Amino acid sequence: MRLSRSLVPTLKETPAEAQIASHRLMLRAGLVRQTASGIYAWLPAGWRVLQNIAQIVREEQDASGAQEMLMPTIQSAELWRASGRYDAYGPEMLRLKDRHERELLYGPTNEEMITEIVRSSVKSYRELPQNLYHIQWKFRDEVRPRFGVMRGREFLMKDAYSFDLDYAGAVVSYRKMMLAYMRTFQRLGLKAIPMAADSGPIGGDLSHEFIILAPTGESQVFYDAAFEGIDYTGGQFSFDSEADLQRFHEMMTGSYAATDEKHDTAAWAKVAEKREGRGIEVGHIFYFGTKYSEPMGLTVAGPDGKPVVPHMGSYGIGVSRLVGAIIEASHDEAGIIWPDSVAPWQAVIVNLKPGDAACDSICEDLYAKFAGKALYDDRADRAGAKFADADLMGHPWQIVVGPRGAAAGNVELKRRATGERQELAVDAALARIL
Ligand code: ATP
Ligand code: MG
Hints:
Elements: H1 21-28, E1 32-36, E2 39-42, H2 44-63, E3 67-68, E4 74-76, H3 77-83, H4 85-88, E5 94-97, E6 103-106, H5 111-121, E7 130-139, E8 154-164, H6 167-187, E9 192-196, E10 207-213, E11 219-224, H7 242-254, E12 257-259, H8 265-269, E13 274-289, E14 300-301, E15 307-308, E16 311-318, H9 319-329, E17 331-332, E18 335-336, E19 347-351, H10 357-370, E20 374-377, H11 383-393, E21 397-401, H12 403-407, E22 410-415, E23 421-425, H13 426-433
Parallel strand pairs: 3-7, 19-20, 19-21
Antiparallel strand pairs: 1-2, 4-6, 5-6, 7-8, 8-16, 9-10, 10-13, 11-12, 11-13, 13-16, 14-15, 17-18, 21-22, 22-23
Helix pairs in contact: 1-9, 2-6, 2-9, 6-7
EC number: 6.1.1.15
Organism: Limobrevibacterium gyesilva
GO biological process, one term: prolyl-tRNA aminoacylation
């Protein structure tokens, strides 16, 4: 994209309504604009980040064996009456009526809908297990929408739902999702800690919240150093090996991790290598047995022909919340520092003197070679303003093209994360990045 022709409305001043760094930076870097309380439009740069995150989430869901589909945002009240949640859900649910006075709602989650879909299409135990997911907008009329996209009313979620014949199968599905989550967060450049969460009346160790570490996070986190330095993507754990999945699950549940809400000081005292930090919840997975399948009449024919009620689990990731969470984990005074995997563009090409033949020619050449993966700052602005915007927008690499270097065929390459600069020949700079 050429910046001179793009809608990337960066702001110099700090917007008054933003209380936390990610919210401020998302507004200042021109990623989003609020259109109503807790509802945001994703501008071109923000939309690219959101899609990059969704794509990593998708690849890891697919690798775990889950299948992508798409359910609608609008649901019928009937579905939710069948599970008993229509009245129970309360004022967080946005309720609507169509022209025939039929009651509808904007989905805050999809357990009922997926249970009904599976009920009407899966008949035999041979068709299980199934794990289905979608990446879809949700609406929850939060009492206090705040912190920008971190607690919005309309937000993008990846939600997956597993169906197994029995408890043992559900445990395997749960472990696969847990591994997919740790791989996903690692690829997003985040340190994630799985924390035992309330599993309600069912009990057991099959409910976890995923907290990512960020200095400005909402809750204090206490965890065992054992969680650090594990490589989840390196082939140590396979989705296809139940032994690997069990070993992985034991590793995740065997070490201490808690937020200030559930901190157990006696257990903490026994941890040899203690770590503390601040954290943000970005995902939640849980097994809930037959909580929805039972009341909604989902059964399949078992091996002996008798009906069996499948065991379910559900698995959420806050895709749009992750945009804010990544910024909380990775920014400085000057702006965002995007991890390479989610950056809207890998590099910005900063033309210090548009109109200078050598500068223009190097920039155009580079821009073409990046094939859409670079942003070209071809604006006629002052150099200082361009540098400030490049730092603010957080591109992993800045390629600065000025008349002096350009005459000798050189550019200056800056790595945003470290501030390290280097003068290089054009091709060498390109080779460093691509
Ligand atoms: P919270 O305790 O933050 O309200 P929740 O328990 O309601 O979260 P889930 O129903 O488990 O959340 O949803 C799965 C994920 O969706 C959460 O882990 C979070 O990342 C994201 N999420 C939930 N509510 C919001 C929201 N209002 N805005 C943005 N993301 C959200
Ligand atoms: Mg909530």
